[in-house]
Amino acid sequence: MMYLKKPLWSQGKPEPDAKTTTTTTTAAADCGDAVEELVDSLQQQRVYREVTLALRTGLRDARAEFSFLRVRGLRNILKFLRSVAESDSTIDLFNRTQSIPQLQVVPVLFEHCLRETGDYENENRVRDLNHIFGVEPLKLTSPATDAEVALALRVLEGCCLLHPQSTGLAHQHNAIPDQSERETLKFT
C-alpha cells in the first residue's frame, strides 16, 4: 500500500526554524503566501465552474417540453439555491451569474414553468396539414402541473431573496401586480 504525503499548501505557512537565516525565512514566507494565493484562486475558479454547471443543467431541464423534466430541473435549481445560501461568497457569485442572460433563472421560470394554460393550447393546435406533412415536426409542450408551479414559485422566492434584482425581473413578467390591479383583484 502506498501512503501519500499531504500537499505542502494544505499545511499552512511553514514554521521558521532557529537555524534558518532571516533571508530564507522571508523567502519561504513569500513562497507560502504565493502558494496560498494560488490555491485560493484555484478554489474560487472551481466554485465558479460548479455554480455555472449547476445553473446550466438545472435551466436546461427547466426549459424542457415535458413537465416531469421541468420538475426535475426545478428541484435541482432549488437544491442549488439552498447550497448557495450557506455562504456569502457563493451568494455573491450567484448574484454575478444572474447578470449573464443564459444563466438567469427568473425569465426561464416565467417562459416555461409559470405560463398560462391558454398559451399551451394555442401553441399545440394544428392549424393546417402542412404541420403534419412538413419537414419540421410540431413541437408539443405539456402544460405545467400543480407540483411544477409550486416548485417554480419556491425557486422564484429563493431567487428574489438571494438576488434583489430578480424582483425587478419578476415585475417585468407581470408577476407582481400594480396597485390598481391589486385593488381590482380584491373586489373580484
TrEMBL record:
Region Disordered: what ranges?
1-25
Q: Which domain of life is it from?
A: Eukaryota
Checking InterPro entries in the record gives: Cell_div_Cdc14 (IPR012535)
UniProt xrefs under PANTHER family: CELL DIVISION CONTROL PROTEIN 14 (PTHR34065:SF1)
What's the name of the protein?
Answer: Uncharacterized protein
Q: Which organism is it from?
A: Stylosanthes scabra
Q: What's the source species' lineage?
A: Eukaryota, Viridiplantae, Streptophyta, Embryophyta, Tracheophyta
